Amino acid sequence: MEKNVRTYRQKEQQSGQSGGRIVALSTAILLIALCSTIPTKGQGSDRWRIGGFLGWGLIDHQVNMTGLPGVPSCCPEYKGGSGNGLSLGAAVELSLAQHFSLSGRLLYASYSGLLETEEDELVTADRDTVRATFLHSIDESQSGLALETFVTFQPINRVGLFGGVRTDFSLSTNFHQEERILEPSNIRYENNSRIRLVSDGKLPDASSLQLSLQAGIRYDLPLNTTGTMMLVPEVAFWHGLSPVVGERDWQMRGLRFGLELQVISIGRAKSPSPLEPGDRRLIVPIQPEPDTSTGSSSDNND
Which of the four pLDDT bands, split at 50, 70 and 90, describes residue 288? Predict the structure, then answer.
């Protein structure tokens, strides 16, 4: 037990250090991006993109635990699971230097996951020894607010590569756990049912804040001839750095497909102010002097 506690504390320390480095990195990226937005001499305008985002994706749960904190379980080990996620919200993007832009999103996000493990065991049923197969499962769901910040690089026209940080703030969590007999069909638990260890409620010791790294590719599709409206499909991979549940080795990663509808606002360079009435000058063309040299020669000859 002492060894396990020490191992967890080491993991917790490493997780905290990693989270601190990510926050510091994201802050540095934002500072650099903000400095890049300072207009330089001769710069005409800044381009803003404002719109909405909708995304759906597949989630891979990386798990190595026997159960949830404080919840009775006979599972030998959960090793993984799968689920999906949905996110929607507002997005803003600001062009920086050539080929670079800074983006931010505020999203409502929901996640789900199903962890299952099958176990084969010899059991005694009506004085007979039989081999039984049990299914241990945890079905969980989460929802929250997500803040995304990332930088996009456009190596070629309309194609962008992006990477950044995502922070999820948990709003609600739920789970359902049970153990079920799969085979044989003629045996039951001591409660005269084929299901036991049923638990429902809020996910115990769930993390209230989760950090993730994400990277992906996107493509700009103009929706009008002036290029002021864009439909931007994207594919992104993200990897969670924080545990889903404290004191448990449980993290998430996923592949997300998204669509962003953007309205582009182009700030035009300020035109020179017109001259004040007192500053106006009348420009009169200069007339050439008449040539009198020919006339003088005639007079002399006379």
Answer: low
